[in-house]
Specification:
Helix content: 40-55%
Number of helices: 11
Shape: globular
Number of strands: 8
Distance between the termini: 35 Å
Length: about 260
């Protein structure tokens, strides 16, 4: 696999919003291709994608070697899935379906070692398969980032309380589920949707935290950039394959 310089998931000083994609199937070459064409971040999707623990562990290594920042959306916001992802060396976790600030307080603590959180110690890749240096937990708490998803009415109402948690590094808006659970049906990117996105963004930015959002259309992408999103997801592996097949059919005169 070709190697590219490692890039941080954090926005540059100029405020450039970084570009990410969802990975739903365990195809390492997808990460390599995405890195080669210019993506910054991969989100390994273990909530909706068909990716198991062992496959995710290998994907983290390959994607980082390709030069991508690697975040894992865990299958559910509980201790074991969060620790699996972080012990693999992922740059951070994204925690889905948080119901409110109390839920977020418990779940995000699994991503940070004591005294900040409650993450358990397991000797693995992050320890270089050796012992634990004296400053390991402090260093790992800084390295491994934790994004709390805002995709339920309770999480949105508690966005400020969630953002201020010391175990939270940023908020990640889930626009599809947020619109559905707020009673608006499928997300449209309309004024009501954008009010919710703005509420979450402002909650994060007000306390110096990052925020991110899927932005698969020009409206949401403009919104994200205007409101200083750290990164956006603009595609996924399966949609990219579909679009590539469609482009080839159009070139061949069959559409």
């Amino acid at each position: 696999m070709s190697q590219r310089p490692r890039r941080s998931g954090k926005s540059s000083a100029s405020g450039t919003t970084k570009l990410a994609f969802w990975l739903q199937r365990a195809h390492p070459t997808t990460c390599e291709i995405a890195a080669l064409v210019g993506y910054d971040i991969v989100l390994i999707d273990m909530e909706h994608g068909a990716i198991g623990v062992e496959a995710a562990d290998a994907l983290v290594v390959g994607a980082k070697q390709a030069g991508l920042t690697v975040y894992v959306r865990v299958s559910h916001s509980e201790r074991v899935p969060i620790q699996y992802a972080l012990d693999s060396g992922a740059d951070g976790v994204i925690l889905p379906q948080l119901q409110d600030a109390d839920h977020a307080r418990v779940a995000t603590a699994y991503a940070k070692y004591p005294p900040l959180g409650t993450r358990g110690v397991g000797f693995s890749r992050t320890h270089d398969y050796a012992g634990t240096p004296r400053n390991f937990t402090t260093r790992e708490n800084r390295r491994a980032r934790c994004f709390a998803m805002i995709e339920t009415p309770g999480a949105l109402a508690d966005a400020e309380a969630i953002a201020v948690l010391p175990t939270v590094d940023g908020l990640f808006v889930g626009p599809a589920d947020l619109s559905m659970t707020r009673g608006r049906g499928l997300v449209q990117g309309n004024a009501a949707d954008q009010r919710d996105w703005r509420q979450a963004a402002q909650a994060a930015l007000a306390v110096g935290k990052s925020w991110a959002i899927p932005a698969h259309d020009p409206v949401s992408l403009r919104f994200a950039r205007r409101h200083q999103a750290e990164f956006v997801t603009i595609s996924d592996d399966l949609s990219a394959i579909r679009q590539g097949f469609l482009d080839a059919l159009a070139m061949a005169g069959r559409s």
